[in-house]
């Protein structure tokens, strides 16, 4: 015999499942940034993700991979390609935005470990950069 409580739980689970299905269909990652963002530049500090974030899910749904050239930005659309240039040595790397952050004042972008390593010594930890949206 099924109780009233069992039916309520099943209805709740069905409703929650439908809501998750609908919400997952609302998320999209653009192939490129809107044209009005191309050329947008910022200057500030960049840091990189700690090793503890390896394989964790990013805000875009991707798994963080410290070997991929990816980054976190507070507002740029997921999938945006950004050239990040180290002001001290003029080295650049192109990264894809797939996460949100950084959430520390003064920082404008968090780079993957390998992307940071392409333009600076990992031991430095934080560098002054310029960023430019390229697509």
UniProtKB/TrEMBL annotation:
Specify the protein's topology with respect to the membrane: Lipid-anchor
Annotated RlpA-like protein double-psi beta-barrel domain ranges read: 42-130
Q: Name one GO molecular function term.
A: lytic endotransglycosylase activity
**Would you tell me the Gene Ontology cellular component terms?**
plasma membrane
UniProt keywords (A-Z) are: Cell membrane, Cell wall biogenesis/degradation, Lipoprotein, Lyase, Membrane, Palmitate, Signal
Subcellular location, in the record's words? Cell membrane
Q: Which residues cross the membrane?
A: none
Pfam families associated with the record: DPBB_1 (PF03330)
Entries under InterPro entries matching the protein = RlpA, RlpA-like_DPBB, RlpA-like_sf, RplA
* Signal peptide (from-to): 1-31
Which sequence ranges form a coiled-coil region, renumbered to this chain? none
Write the Enzyme Commission number(s) for this entry. 4.2.2.-
**GO biological process: any one?**
cell wall organization
Family from the record: Belongs to the RlpA family.
* Biological function: Lytic transglycosylase with a strong preference for naked glycan strands that lack stem peptides.
Tell me which NCBIfam families the record gives: rlpA (TIGR00413)
Protein name per Swiss-Prot or TrEMBL: Endolytic peptidoglycan transglycosylase RlpA
Q: What is the lineage of its organism?
A: Bacteria, Pseudomonadati, Pseudomonadota, Gammaproteobacteria, Alteromonadales
The gene name reads: rlpA
């Amino acid at each position: 015999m099924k109780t009233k409580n069992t039916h309520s739980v099943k209805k709740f689970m069905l409703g929650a499942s439908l809501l998750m299905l609908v919400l997952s269909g609302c998320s999209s990652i653009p192939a490129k940034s809107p044209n009005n963002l191309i050329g947008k530049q910022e200057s500030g500090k960049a840091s990189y993700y700690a090793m503890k974030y390896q394989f964790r899910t990013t805000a875009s749904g991707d798994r963080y991979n410290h070997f991929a050239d990816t980054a976190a930005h507070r507002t740029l659309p997921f999938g945006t390609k950004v050239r990040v240039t180290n002001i001290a040595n003029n080295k650049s790397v192109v990264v894809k935005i797939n996460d949100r952050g950084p959430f520390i004042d003064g920082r404008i972008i968090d780079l993957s470990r390998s992307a940071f390593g392409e333009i600076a010594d990992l031991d430095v930890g934080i560098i002054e950069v310029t960023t430019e949206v390229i697509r």
